[in-house]
Amino acid sequence: MQTPQHPGDENLSREDAAARASVVTLETIEVDLDVRSASDPAREDFETQSILRFDAATSETWVDFLGASVDEVEINGETRKVDWDGARIRLTGLAERNTVRIRARGRYSRSGEGLHRFTDPVDGAVYLYTQYEPADSRRVYPCFEQPDLKARWTFHVTAAGDGVILSGGAETGRTDVDGGVRVSFAETPPLSSYVTAVAVGPYHRVDGVWRGERQSVDLGVLCRASLAEHLDADEILDITRRGLDFFTSAFDQHYPWGKYDQIFVPEYNLGAMENPGLVTFTEAYVFRGAATAAQREARSNTILHEMAHMWFGDLVTMRWWDDLWLKESFADFMGTHANVATGLHPDAWVTFASRRKGWAYAQDQLPTTHPIVADIPDLEAAKLNFDGITYAKGASVLKQLVGFVGEEAFFRGARRYFATHAYGNTTLEDLLAALEEASGRDLRSWSAAWLETTGLPTLTTERAPLAVAQDVARPHAVSVGLWDDEGGRLVARGDVAVDLFGERTVVTAPVLPDAAVVVANVDDRSYARVRLDDRSLAAVQEGLSTMPDAVARGVVWAALWNAVRDGELAASVYLAIAARHAPQEPHPALLADVLAHAAFAVRHYVPDAARAAAADAWLDTAGAAMDAAAPGSDAQLIWARAVGVAAELSDARAELMTAILDGRAPTPEGLALDPDLRWGWVFGLAASGRADARRIEEEAARDATSSGRTARLAALSARPEASVRADAWRAAWDDPTLTNDHLDAVIRGVRAGASRPLVTAFDDDYFARILPVWRSRSIEIAARLVRGLFPATEDTVAVDAWLAAHPDAPGSLRRIVLEERDHLARDLRVRAAQAVLEAR
Q1: How confident is residue 6, by pLDDT bands cut at 50, 70 and 90?
Q2: Which residue, 221, 361, 534, 745, has fewest beta-carbon neighbours within 10 Å?
């Protein structure tokens, strides 16, 4: 057995991966996991074994493993001395054909990386699940951890026999063993290591089946036993069946992976992960109480997004993480496209325009923005590249591409792409070739303009003559929308299509000279930031909520918000528009986004001297809108949640909120005061000093679940007392027993309410800690700390000093610090501009 004293570098460079792939041809990996120790809280490790069969054009290479120990290495039947630095197991004396057996011990995870172990506080049940992307399967079994070394995998899992034992393949047999059962699974088709998966525990299961035109697939929906009453499996199975109907037809490909289990797991770091045959989802999609149509749409979108990955990403996989967009951009586009095409959520593009594009626009303005086809030198960079560019910007330009080549040609090209590269690895060139062949169009200039560049154009409209200008010349087609004011209502007068190439394009179609509102990209077809001219701004201030088209309203709401965050529109003006028109906004996703932006504006963009008054006013707006909303409506619930958020900075409704929570005042008619909404209000009250520890513990006693436990920790950490925040600060950095979710809760508490005076003393400590924590903790945990506890200082002097003093810090750490510096600089710049903007 070897336990490394000085762990090796966990990072893997693109060059090292390419070198290994050039001399190794991987055939199969057989994994044997023994997790019978999971129920013993004193045991942190489990037994793991891999048998790897591969050809080698070299005498030596390495196998990746991050764990507690490596106990035995056998090469072609011969036991070898273990040579392991904590990250790489060195193999020497290889033959042309090799069988390598490695026995080791892995560590159970509390960070959501690798094999995560969770104990349910409701019933004491222990649950395991795996999460690997981009490179954490090596935390569970020795493997070649890079996407272009695919293997046919066979899994055997030994566990206590009183629960579910799952992997991506179908179960082929089980044998009773001492203290449990050993379950074997069918060999998979070729797969990259990061999409293999295992789950173990007393999960509640609902079975189903999908019967397509050419195949049938067994379906399963699973969650923790204590959440079973909340699992709406019928809706999830309906989405799944519709999605499989759509994708197998659109791609003209069978579903390739046998069964289709979907499991909702606790303390999950992502929304979901596309493991073939065993897709994992966050438990946030198991709604414990009332859920809006927007929440159900988001869940449907995620289910379909992951399903698209069964082809884009799993069947055909990028060679290296540079082409991460080949799976994530496509899945993000396909999730929304399929939501519409299946009839599940016909207006899903409205949500995409507001939510996903908003994420992309913000990411694309950071100094660390990158092309959709990115330069990813190593695994740490890959971990941070699951961002708004790779997902939402990529999906946005794919939407443009579908319009450019035509939907029929696009899907014809996708079919050729899958047929040519099934079970293989690809690059950008492979996809462009398939689409060009199908469409007959040259896509190289499109790729250069949209996939291989950074930034986004800003579109402005001019009148007399009507023209569209863009500050960054990109080729795209947009529609210009025109409205008139008729008796206080904005009435559409039609759209004008225009192809943009240069910096200014005159619109030659007839124009109504007295149009009250002119908006470029009104159908949100293109990827561009939109500015409103002064006359249009004045008109939408009066009549925004009267515009009948949700997409157009979404474009206008986005234009207003982008102007605020760019320092071109006063935050007070946005808040006034939101107060006037958000109560009439019928689209739940648009409404939720507007309210989130308003709360952000109060916290970040309103000057310090005016913040308390703005916070009181916004809480009054949210409370009045909640009271006025239709009983039981989505709007009522969304406004009620906004009340909890607004209460962090204002105690104007604290007595009434407390009375409602305690049952001393009536709950608004129709409002479901479920545990999640109650905790939202309790957190707001705690952050403003109106809920003490006793009140928080009373709430925790009402909700003795894992969600309640996490919410309790957040609320306790949010109390505006110097000693409380100091204890929370130290716990976040120093307590390794905090799970990923509990760490998030503590960080949320530290940052809650008017927190700045309570944490100013820790600014120097932050900059002293971030490099050591990056070196000592996993990237998932370290990134949460570096982002979440970044100090909102009054200038950028301290962060600039740290960046200057640490030019050789890991690139991924510097990227986070640079991004947080940019957010801080934007806040300071926008706040400083408010007086001038309000005087206009």
Answers
A1: very low
A2: 534
